Amino acid sequence: MKAEIIRYYDSLARIYDKDRFSNSYGKYIHSQELKVLNKYLSKKKIDKNLDLACGTGRFLDFAKYGADISLEMIKLSRDKFPSKIIVHGDAEELRFEDKSFENVYSFHLLMHLDLETLTRIQKEVSRICKANGLFIFDIPSEKRRRLFGFKRTSWHGGYQISYDELKGIINNDWEIVDYHGVAFFPIHRIPKKFRKLFIPLDTIFCNSIFKEYSSHLIFILKKK
């Protein structure tokens, strides 16, 4: 599966930004993800931050370091951010020393994997993260998918998790500080000309008591 993921993102790298985030759907998702990063991280204090699975560098403003398993993605992010330290690496076995970072964040990675791989990655992030550091990541909501009878058909975006399930696998390394929803409403079904208008309302629901029924969840973990 890992080799397939690498081939997929290598082939997509050149068109990734335009294909995924230049349209109204991508901008909708990006705006909600950005709100969460701005809440917990500062663009002025980035020297000890790592963007794990940094891709083309969509969120590299929040980190000095980036890592990705796709060499083609790395080429693009290095071109865009020549002053950043961007390395080729597997999230399960990173080439960084223990306690190298204050904060680690990762978007659109764990949704492609499984529980065993997620468990190994959070252990590896725990190893490289300092005490009280944050691990911020997104993943589809298990409750939302169960509600709509989702069936996994491929690795692409095929994995999901609930708050309780995550809490069970991170108990020795992290505490859950908070979590936020992304895309409470089915954005793809909303006419394009109205999507921007829905963002404020969607964001309210994504931070309400109903947030675990959002399409995706962004978890904020704190290293013990």
From TrEMBL:
The keyword Transferase applies. One of its GO terms (molecular function) is S-adenosylmethionine-dependent methyltransferase activity. It comes from the Bacteria. CDD domains: AdoMet_MTases. InterPro entries: Methyltransf_11, Methyltransf_Superfamily, SAM-dependent_MTases_sf. Residues 50-137 form the Methyltransferase type domain. Keywords: Methyltransferase, Transferase. GO terms for biological process: methylation. This is SAM-dependent methyltransferase.
